Amino acid sequence: MTLHQNLIAGEWVGTDGVANVNPSNTNDVIGDYARASADDALAAIAAAKAAFPAWSRSGLLERHAILKKTADEILARKDELGRLLSREEGKTLAEGIGETVRAGQIFDFFAGEALRLAGEVIPSVRPNIGVEITREPVGVVGIITPWNFPIAIPAWKIAPALCYGNTVVFKPAELVPGCSWAIVDILHRAGLPKGVLNLVMGKGSVVGQAMLDSPDIQAITFTGSVGTGKRVAAASVEHNRKFQLEMGGKNPFVVLDDAELAVAVEAAVNSAFFSTGQRCTASSRLIVTEGIHDRFVAAMAERMNGLVVDDALKAGTHIGPVVDQGQLNQDTDYIAIGQQEGAKLAFGGELIARDTPGFYLQPALFTEATNQMRIAREEIFGPVAAVIRVKDYDEALAVANDTPFGLSSGIATTSLKHATHFKRNAEAGMVMVNLPTAGVDFHVPFGGRKGSSYGSREQGKYAAEFYTTVKTAYTLA
Ligand code: UN1
């Protein structure tokens, strides 16, 4: 089996590897991936630190060319990389290819941004003095990514980090090293100088911890669990470094009496169950007004009945497997908890067998749930959603906002008045009208409020806020 190594200071290193297993078929091993030690992480940080002075002053055309070449190669290999993604993570092939295209588009966007760096020239309040406001790179950026978007999230952190002149130590999720290895390989071959981007695959408790403890990392961007996010925050405050956190969600999707039923059902099924519900933007709380409630639940059950849950790589599969046994246990535990709490399991929720050994779960829909139940308060991160019945729009909005999280929020309605009011009053970073809560564009800001996120937004032009630091220079004329 080929060993995929870590990239440290421009050299591929590492001897023993861990198997990357396909969740659709646990007999299928994708490859061996090296596991970095704490010393490897320190070597990677030292390499990024050494590479920073030159890269931070590198020519814009050099940065543009490397990012563009990377975008072009990712897009040219979209079918192969999308297949690798689906094979290691378990989302369907269409979703895997779609995510790969998105990663290519992100590199393309930041290739362009490298040529659009700008500042401001402002007169001083004092005579004969000029003020220039410019953005400079932050330094060594630590990037820690989750397993559920194996190529898009690494892309949307690595591309802006490099575009603005930072050097990088990158630790992907242990479960899905394949796509991360592939994009680092592409960037390396595209001509990145030694040490500008270092890949350290391995355990959070070893590699991630070494990154958190290092005084030589000036910024950490993290997407993952609330618990780990809190540790990143505490360690970063200790080291006076910048940090950006993207954590959980318990996103509401409101369905009003005046909604178009087909639009509401399509958006709700996508929000709750596509990508096997494993998106921080997924909706697991379907908040439905009483006039449409029964019709909505019946239409959901019918639509769910038509969903094909099977091998992610098979044509015709709508929902792939859960990512691993640990996540599957968490999903089934919550399905039991929901029933114990008194919600009604209206559809699905059972383990299913397919031709190959994999982690297959029939998407589950609860009805008669309340917003106080654990299934409505805690992030499950699986294909499990709960319908909460409410009287009217005002109650729907109150329930939607009654959560510790605030990433995404959706509404299905034909009322301009309610749509407008919801956009203004939903306590979330992103609001979707007649659209799923998940599935975002690559060129506009991404992020949330309350317990979901911390720090400035990711993606698009707004990414500059995190990956640069502002300098204000005064000159006597
Ligand atoms: C999307 O919904 O298209 O981890 C993106 C996540 C998010 C990305 C969601 N950071 O699910």
Determine and state the CATH class of the largest domain: Alpha Beta
Low-pLDDT segments:
none
Q: Give the CA-based shape.
A: globular
- Order of strands in the sheet with the most strands? 15-16-17-14-13-18-19
Q: Which architecture of the largest domain does the CATH hierarchy give at level 2?
A: 3-Layer(aba) Sandwich
- Count the beta strands: 21
| Ligand roster | 2-aminohexanedioic acid
Structural class: alpha/beta
The CA-CA distance between the termini, in Å, is: 66 Å
Rg calc: 23 Å
Summarize the structure.
With 477 residues, the chain is of the alpha/beta class. It has 15 helices and 21 strands.
Protein architecture, described:
- Helices cover 40% and strands 23% of the residues.
- With 477 residues, it is an alpha/beta fold.
- It folds into two domains: 3-247 and 452-476, Aldehyde Dehydrogenase, Chain A, domain 1 (3-Layer(aba) Sandwich); 251-433, 3-Layer(aba) Sandwich (Aldehyde Dehydrogenase, Chain A, domain 2), CATH 3.40.309.
- The strands form five sheets. It has a seven-stranded mixed sheet, sandwiched between helices. Strands 10-9-8-11-12-20 form a six-stranded mixed sheet, sandwiched between helices.
- Helix 12 links the parallel strand 16 and strand 17 (384-390).
- Helix 3 (78-89) crosses helix 4 (93-113).
- The radius of gyration is 23 Å and the shape is globular.
- It starts with a strand and ends with a strand.
- The model has no long low-confidence stretch (mean pLDDT 98).
- The structure holds 2-aminohexanedioic acid.
- 2-aminohexanedioic acid (UN1) is lined by residues 146, 148-149, 153, 223, 246, 279-281, 438-440.
